[in-house]
Amino acid sequence: xxxxxxxxxxxxxxxxxxxxxxxxxxxxxxxxxxxxxxxxxxxxxxxxxxxxxxxxxxxxxxxxxxxxxxxxxxxxxxxxxxxxxxxxxxxxxxxxxxxxxxxxxxxxxxxxxxxxxxxxxxxxxxxxxxxxxxxxxxxxxxxxxxxxxxxxxxxxxxxxxxxxxxxxxxxxxxxxxxxxxxxxxxxxxxxxxxxxxxxxxxxxxxxxxxxxxxxxxxxxxxxxxxxxxxxxxxxxxxxxxxxxxxxxxxxxxxxxxxxxxxxxxxxxxxxxxxxxxxxxxxxxxx
Length: 286
What we know:
By secondary structure, the protein is an alpha+beta fold. The protein is 23% helix and 30% strand.
């Protein structure tokens, strides 16, 4: 999710609106050329035809719902590469397009929400992860067990299979996790540890996870345990594919001003290449 379509949509809408307004107030080609449409300059025709449509699309995308495509497996099994989703843009507050400044405070993320946000290290890129920690939350991870504010997050081993898992080494293991009002599947890798594999991944990038480098209390048992407190105005996010997700463990907290919206619905899926879209995965995102 690397490109913000509003960078094209907003200027195009403003340009066509400006041409429409110019004709209405100054040029008056449509009003003075007999039957109107078809008798004025083609640019004026385009302005009358396109700016209302573009304005409607802009309002829908900027303030109501925006489509996104999932480009990676970091949210497996909740979201698969090739899923097309709808993101509720107003649930976390009404924001201006492009600058993303909140102008109306409607609501805040809830623990367990799947959220789209601008990647803190490069706001031109959009990320999608699950909100694990809210402002002020104390998050601990101890040998596979996630805890929030001293309470264990419930994880129940669950039978689940994906066609792609057959080729996986190591083997995929699934748990049903309950977080707030959300109940969803998370994927781990057999013989791995959510932080150990995180270390391996980070070391391959010649770096350490954020929780190791930015928090003094990262001290326990060979990197198998960590804890962090989420500052005010920020969120801690992780992928459901816990052993294969570059998330807040690597690059830090999500600032509130980076939030885009709440991912709510899968409306289509398309495999890469010359494959037809399918609709078997359609449904709400838990």
